[in-house]
Design goal:
single chain; 181 residues; mainly alpha; 75% helix
Length: 181
């Protein structure tokens, strides 16, 4: 099922999500097409919803250059790792951990080959989904330094929030179907 069909088939209780998806993705005016579709791809991967991820990857591959498509996937991958590590540092009461080197490879953050602002926006979206305050703060600061205003930042986070919620609904409906079968 393609992404639009998946969204259109959302249950009645997710009507707000369908409407928000339509406004934020189908009619988006806040983000460039690359920013939008990279956010959709990276956010879908972060949801861990198989159906949504497959549909978003298929749609994103058509909307993005191959380099931007790979960069969006890289943003989701590296932030999936970083969000756990840095969220741990944030949550632990042992301050010593923050003084030690991370010893984690994060080359994708520097070698993605696309507009740095776009990659940072995707890292911010994934960090918001994964709930890592340290990473949200860090990437929000970087995008502001690169010229992003409030509307652009919130535009990316809005898209990420809707994609995340769609993934949760899709997975809930799949569980329900499996139990009924």
């Amino acid at each position: 099922m393609n992404l639009d069909e998946l969204i259109d088939a959302m249950p009645a209780y997710a009507k707000d999500l369908k409407l928000n998806y339509s406004t934020l993705v189908r009619q988006n005016s806040e983000l460039t097409p690359q920013q939008l579709w990279g956010t959709v791809v990276a956010s879908a991967i972060a949801t861990r919803s198989a159906a949504l991820t497959e549909a978003a990857l298929t749609a994103g591959e058509k909307q993005l250059t191959s380099q931007a498509f790979e960069a969006a996937k890289s943003a989701a991958a590296v932030m999936g790792m970083n969000n756990i590590y840095y969220r741990f540092l944030h949550l632990t009461s042992n301050d010593k951990y923050s003084t030690l080197p991370a010893k984690l490879r994060m080359n994708a953050i520097r070698t993605h080959g696309i507009e740095p602002l776009d990659f940072e926006l995707w890292a911010l979206a994934v960090s918001a989904i994964n709930g890592c305050g340290k990473c949200v703060d860090s990437h929000e600061k970087v995008v502001r330094e690169k010229g992003a205003g409030d509307e652009l930042v919130l535009g990316v986070v809005r898209v990420a929030s809707v994609i995340h919620a769609l993934g949760a609904v899709l997975d809930a409906e799949r569980v329900r179907e499996a139990v009924a079968a």
